[in-house]
Model the fold of this input.
Amino acid sequence: MTHIKYYAFPQTVNEALALLLNKKYKAMAVAGGTLVAKTLPDTVETYLDLKNLPIKGIKISGGNLIIGAGASFDEIDHSKLCRSWAGGVVSSAAAKCSSQLIRNMATIGGNVARPHSFNIFPVVLLGLDARVKVVSKAGAKTVDFAGLYAPGFGLKPGMECIITEIIIPAKTKKWRCEFIKLAKTESSWESYITLFFAAQKEGKTITQARVAVGALSPKPFRASAAEKAFLSGGAHNAATAFAMELDSARAGEYRSVAAANLLKRFIKGLV
Ligand SMILES: Cc1cc2nc3c(=O)[nH]c(=O)nc-3n(C[C@H](O)[C@H](O)[C@H](O)COP(=O)(O)OP(=O)(O)OC[C@H]3O[C@@H](n4cnc5c(N)ncnc54)[C@H](O)[C@@H]3O)c2cc1C
Done:
């Protein structure tokens, strides 16, 4: 880190963006700092600390759950709003982050800024149809969570844009959800697989189904064949379709069998 020359503490998003875009400073955003120090490019000369920015709040707006990008895992775990949303899955996922020290420091913005196989929130946010608000030279825009990692996004978070909010849509508030981190120990960051399941049930009919998979590759993915079978109602068929999709994704037998059984358990629990 000997190449770091400046440490900046902007107070507003506009001020932070101006510093980030000023080529003279060669700046990179730092939120909790839990990951950035390990992966800092040699070209960076300025740490742009986001901690004073007003992007930490958690609120409801327009019926959506809005989580400020600067909210820590611990704040999300203990937020009453997060705990009462979709059965509390966002909070319980935050609680599965490896240690209290990391949960105190790490932010949701830093967790999603760059694809990483073992990060918890990407798979949860993909499954919840979340959107991400980013501010760049071109102004503020909101993109689907998957769009953040798509080649067409065209901006490097933390270098060319700042993530300010995660928006979890109102329609998911009553979804039945489960996040599973299948790992050697609860305190492992690495996991064999992470899973996010969600369903909306009206009467006896499943009207929405989500099966999202993380840890097999840096970007999480949705298992579309499993979701289709899940919507048609059969736990067994959904599990079979899921196992086949995981085989195609080279998950290996243990992960495929375990994940398919966990999906079957989730569907059977939707009574
Ligand atoms: C020992 C250890 C254990 C860990 N265990 C887990 C675990 O169990 N689960 C898990 O998911 N992760 C885990 N992590 C990974 C890491 O802590 C998370 O990814 C964390 O959420 C990063 O957030 P941060 O605020 O610390 O980001 P930082 O380290 O500050 O930044 C990470 C990256 O995101 C960019 N960035 C940060 N905030 C923004 C923003 N608002 N807008 C644009 N870019 C931004 C930075 O520029 C940088 O590129 C672990 C890390 C360590 C070191």
